């Protein structure tokens, strides 16, 4: 059994309605994907995302504001209510992105600080996006005592030094389809080194489709391809990697409930 620990089901162009979303989830189930974490990036889009996922008990949610969406605003009182909802198991996606939006650096930092504080207050882990902001990301996590709740550096693309620093803060590392790209040698080296009990697997669907699906809209079903590639890198069987990444997910996201066997 696999878990797609980071996807954006509400952003799939191929699933604009419930019947097509049901098919996406069915296709993923056919490839051993049992659970999904649908990640919020715009606070203004949370309620529509929540409502669209309401019928799917195997789909967990997060609530937060992405660093590339901070100009749309962060209402901490409202977000505080969202993160307390039953299916919401994490705060985020939050973090810092100086690669695409260096001009909003100060606002990103403010929103990041506020979301770290919120996560600590409600005792839920963080989902972190970081790009070209290694030192500042670690600074705000340390200063905000994010180690009290932990979290995950999703779609990891940084170096081993960044990974080690995050691991020391109690964070997990999640690998996406980028690990299958030809130019991702350094990332593959990091994936080999991450301790077994701190590794997650994701698609970041609908973005970053893995080999052999490059050029297509990424689907949660493709997390199987990512997992198989990661298992080969680490010298594990697919079954071993699926088992320990699933256990890791439920250990980190303690509010996520396993469904009863059917």
Structure characterization notes:
The chain has 262 residues and is of the alpha/beta class. It has helices at residues 18-29, 46-52, 76-83, 105-122, 134-143, 160-168, 185-193, 223-234, 238-252; strands at residues 2-7, 33-38, 59-63, 88-97, 126-131, 151-153, 171-175, 199-201. Strands 1-2-3-4-5-6-7-8 form an 8-stranded parallel β-sheet. α8 packs across α9. The mean pLDDT is 97.
Write a short abstract of this structure.
With 262 residues, the chain is of the alpha/beta class.
Strand order, main sheet: write it out.
1-2-3-4-5-6-7-8
- Terminal CA distance reads 14 Å
Q: What is the strand tally?
A: 8
Q: Secondary-structure element sequence?
A: EHEHEHEHEHEHEHEHH
Task: Provide key terms for this protein.
262 residues; eight-stranded parallel beta sheet; 8 strands
SSE order and pairing:
Blueprint: E1 2-7, H1 18-29, E2 33-38, H2 46-52, E3 59-63, H3 76-83, E4 88-97, H4 105-122, E5 126-131, H5 134-143, E6 151-153, H6 160-168, E7 171-175, H7 185-193, E8 199-201, H8 223-234, H9 238-252
Parallel strand pairs: 1-2, 2-3, 3-4, 4-5, 5-6, 6-7, 7-8
């Amino acid at each position: 059994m696999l878990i797609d620990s980071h996807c954006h089901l509400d952003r799939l162009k191929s699933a604009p309605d419930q019947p097509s979303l049901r098919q996406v989830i069915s296709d993923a189930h056919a490839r051993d994907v049992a659970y999904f974490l649908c990640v919020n990036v715009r606070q203004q889009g949370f309620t529509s995302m929540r409502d669209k996922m309401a019928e799917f008990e195997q789909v967990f949610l997060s609530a937060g504001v992405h660093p590339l969406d901070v100009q749309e605003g962060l209402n901490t009182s409202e977000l505080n209510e969202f993160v307390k909802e039953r299916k919401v198991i994490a705060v985020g996606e939050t973090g810092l992105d100086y690669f695409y939006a260096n001009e909003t650096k100060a606002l990103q930092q403010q929103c990041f600080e506020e979301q770290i504080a919120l996560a600590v207050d409600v005792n839920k882990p963080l989902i972190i996006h970081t790009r070209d902001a290694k030192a500042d990301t670690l600074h705000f996590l340390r200063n905000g005592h994010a180690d009290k709740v932990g979290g995950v550096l999703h779609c990891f693309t940084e170096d081993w030094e960044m990974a080690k620093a995050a691991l020391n803060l109690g964070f997990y590392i999640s690998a996406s389809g980028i690990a299958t790209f030809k130019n991702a040698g350094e990332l593959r080296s990091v994936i080999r080194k991450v301790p077994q009990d701190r590794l997650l697997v994701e698609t970041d669907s609908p973005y970053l489709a893995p080999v052999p699906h490059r050029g297509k809209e990424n689907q949660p079903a493709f997390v199987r391809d990512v997992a198989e590639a990661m298992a080969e890198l680490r010298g594990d069987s697919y079954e071993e990697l699926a088992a320990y990444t699933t256990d890791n997910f439920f250990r980190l996201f303690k509010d996520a409930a396993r469904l009863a066997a059917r």
